[in-house]
């Protein structure tokens, strides 16, 4: 590396000294910045007082990182470990114990153990605080390092020390790592012919998993309504978002992407084959719904195929691609903006729900207007089309839906937004059924009048 930089610097220096003709000066001016970079790297590597801090390849990698860090927040240099982790996440398979964690105020808290994994079988519970991983104190580790230490070769042992609420002494749990297959789609029957499906992220096979659930439900006796839960779904693979949307609409535009070339717009369209279009859909979203989730929600909203409910989404309206580098790292590069079928850009805006529903009854929902401070918030009761309720929506009570809601497993049973969505969905499906039961002669006359 030293020799190469020295040669580059000398060659560039020689070109400057040679005093080229006018046309060559114009050409060489393009490389003036490159000359500065080469010289700067050479000076750092050969003259900086602490030689250990300016060794190759870290020096070049830091230079590249500095370049991408000046761009948008989603364009980043991914070190080999991070790139490998992204590949694992999109494939949905890794060696570990099967526990989903979050970092809260320096603590590593278990969100939930994944069903039928070493963590679930070993007694890990939601709300547990992991305080040590194989003897390493969690407070001394970064979140990524903590996750890395829990993952490993299948068959290897993992020792966790956890603190559990209402338990005096920390618990010591020894688990054996396995291949963890993470399903991005989970289904639950809410009532006869009413289905709930949650998509946690858009990874390889997500659309196939969703299609399989919908086909199974259709075979069991049909679907009168579906709730599609995209809350806290950070996104994932663009092609999976397109394919998921394609399951619900028969034709038309799904998403447009516009990159550097303003004259070249790429468009993805729906196909009629294998479409589930004969039942109403409610899509649940919140501030954690981003990117691919917003593509699905925006397309279904624009096509009036689904009712969007919840709170405003994150607002990530850009597309990234991953470009591998020779040293095992990669650049995640923003290459395009995407637009909904009605040419709406949601960048820094998000998808606004058709019906705003807070996560809990009476909870404040932040609403940012042009003249409002970023920290201002209005109460749910101030919002247009707000829902009046306490524990369950009034619709659920008046329609006697609590008999079904009481049978749901936790945490679905305590999910205020889900109960509200179910109430709306049930009302719509019932109204639609009642309309179909109207006088057949009247319907025939209307059809004749329309065709004249």
The gist of it:
The protein has three domains: 72 residues, no CATH class; 89 residues, Pdz3 Domain, CATH 2.30.42.10; 249 residues, 2-enoyl-CoA Hydratase, Chain A, domain 1. It is 34% helix and 23% strand. The chain has 14 helices and 19 strands.
Helix run count:
14
Structural class: alpha+beta
CATH fold-level name of the largest domain = 2-enoyl-CoA Hydratase, Chain A, domain 1
Overall shape? globular
Radius of gyration, whole Å: 28 Å
What is the mean predicted local confidence, pLDDT?
A: 80
CATH architecture of the largest domain: Alpha-Beta Complex
Number of strands: 19
CATH level-4 homologous superfamily of the largest domain: 2-enoyl-CoA Hydratase, Chain A, domain 1
| Gap between N and C termini | 81 Å
The residue fraction in helices comes out at 25-40%
């Amino acid at each position: 590396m030293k020799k190469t930089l020295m040669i580059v610097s000398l060659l560039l220096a020689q070109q400057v000294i040679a005093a080229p003709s006018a046309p060559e000066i114009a050409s060489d001016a393009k490389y003036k910045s490159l000359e500065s970079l080469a010289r700067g790297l050479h000076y750092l590597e050969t003259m900086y007082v602490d030689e250990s801090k300016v060794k190759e390849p870290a020096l070049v990698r830091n230079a590249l990182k500095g370049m991408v860090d000046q761009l948008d927040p989603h364009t980043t240099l991914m070190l080999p470990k991070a790139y490998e982790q992204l590949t694992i996440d999109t494939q949905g398979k890794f060696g570990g114990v099967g526990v989903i964690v979050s970092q809260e105020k320096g603590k590593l808290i278990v969100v939930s153990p994944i069903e039928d994994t070493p963590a679930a079988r070993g007694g890990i519970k939601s709300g547990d605080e992991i305080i040590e991983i194989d003897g390493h104190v969690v407070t001394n580790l970064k979140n990524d390092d903590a996750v890395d230490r829990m993952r490993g070769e299948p068959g290897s042992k993992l020792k966790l020390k956890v603190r559990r609420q209402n338990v005096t002494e920390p618990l010591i749990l020894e688990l054996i790592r396995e291949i963890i297959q993470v399903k991005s789609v989970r289904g639950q029957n809410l009532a006869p012919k009413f289905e709930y499906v949650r998509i946690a992220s858009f990874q390889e096979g997500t659309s196939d998993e969703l299609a399989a659930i919908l086909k199974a439900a259709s075979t069991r006796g049909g679907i009168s309504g579906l709730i599609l839960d995209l809350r806290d779904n950070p996104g994932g693979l663009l092609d999976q978002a397109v394919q998921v949307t394609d399951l619900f609409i028969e034709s038309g535009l799904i998403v447009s992407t516009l990159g550097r070339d303003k004259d070249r717009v790429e468009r993805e369209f729906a196909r009629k084959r294998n479409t589930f279009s004969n039942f109403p859909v409610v899509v649940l979203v919140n501030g954690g719904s981003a990117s691919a989730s917003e593509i699905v929600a925006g397309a279904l909203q624009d096509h009036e195929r689904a009712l969007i409910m919840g709170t405003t989404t994150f607002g990530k309206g850009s597309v990234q691609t991953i470009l591998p580098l020779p040293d095992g790292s990669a650049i995640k590069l923003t290459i395009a903006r995407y637009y909904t079928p009605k040419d709406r850009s949601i960048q820094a805006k998000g998808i606004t729900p058709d019906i705003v529903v807070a996560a809990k009854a009476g909870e404040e929902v932040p609403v940012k207007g042009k003249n409002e401070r970023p920290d201002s918030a209005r109460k749910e009761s101030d919002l247009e089309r707000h829902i009046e309720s306490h524990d369950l929506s009034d619709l659920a009570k008046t329609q006697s839906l609590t008999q079904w809601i009481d049978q749901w497993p936790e945490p679905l049973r305590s999910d205020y937004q889900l109960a509200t969505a179910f109430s709306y969905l049930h009302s719509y499906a019932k109204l639609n059924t009642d309309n179909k039961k109207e006088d057949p002669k009247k319907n025939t006359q209307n059809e004749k009048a329309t065709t004249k």
